[in-house]
Amino acid sequence: MAQVTLTERPALGARVRDIGFWADWAAVIGLAGLVVVFGIASPSFLTLGNIEAMLVSAAILVVLAVGQSFVIATGGIDLSTSTTMTFGAVVIGMLYTHGWPIAAAIAAGVAAAGLAGAASGVLIARGRIPDFVVTLGMFSVTTGLALILSDGKPAEVVSAFLLGLASGSVGPVGYFVIVAAAVAVVAHVVLFHTRFGVHVLATGGNPEGARAMGVRTRRVKLAVYVIAGALSGIAAILLVARLGAAEPAANTTYLLNAIAAVVLGGVALQGGRGSVLGPVVGALLLTALTNGLTLLGVSQFYQPLAVGFVVVAAALLMRYQR
């Protein structure tokens, strides 16, 4: 009698018919589908200039999504990433207009965003307050601080360094893309090739078991919110460079899209399953979707509706992930 081993891989046809296959590759398949559809529907979609514009536009979202991935991998969520980014941007703008060197202003902006993340982490890890409540409160706190510090007015930031960051490139690859790629690579190494990354996934997957194995889950929780805050500060640098100013108005679109990119990337909202490449692809998918709809002349009123449908579909597919 022929023996069948458990290590045998199913045939390609069987894998394609398996809904788990589509769930695992949803973001990649969705992005490829959008490229084909919009490439046919709009001749300018696949032009070099438009591709570069999409990559630059996606860079900020990629950085925010990577930070959100660390938090969600522990079973938490950070609703303040976009306003923390705004707060960091305002700190950069305020200090620069008061005569600080751009390097010092940038360092202070990243530090301020990291401190906001640390405050959330302390309240969640030490105070044992639900992350939803804490980060929702931090959303308002950072929004208020940005408005108070700026007096509700944008601060123009004319810096040769930031202008070069926004417009410079290495060959065809812009500095924005390089920064986002560097953040993603470092995050991947940290999450999957360090002890800290193992602790992050263990904390999200089974907190009680992790504590029994000696993992200091409270410190891990605190650390991921600091990481998310610091990455919001890095995103603030890119935002100021792109706009040429520190804008105090909160942009909730970045928050919703960062969480959406993580969901599209296959990171389990209940924790324990992490990814960096997935959220990066998710951010590219959302950027391509918005860009393609704009090129086709679809009203901006309908674009959030399309994004919502895509995210809900991805969330449904996540039930079948292997």
Automatic annotation (TrEMBL):
GO terms for cellular component: plasma membrane. Signal peptide: none annotated. It is found in: Cell membrane. It comes from the Bacteria. Keywords: Cell membrane, Membrane, Transmembrane, Transmembrane helix. It is a multi-pass membrane protein. Its main location: membrane. Pfam families: BPD_transp_2. One of its GO terms (molecular function) is transmembrane transporter activity. The chain crosses the membrane at residues 21-41, 53-72, 102-125, 132-150, 170-192, 222-245, 251-269, 276-295, 301-320. PANTHER family: ABC TRANSPORTER PERMEASE PROTEIN YPHD-RELATED-RELATED, RIBOSE IMPORT PERMEASE PROTEIN RBSC. This is ABC transporter permease. It comes from Marinitenerispora sediminis. The lineage of its organism: Bacteria, Bacillati, Actinomycetota, Actinomycetes, Streptosporangiales.
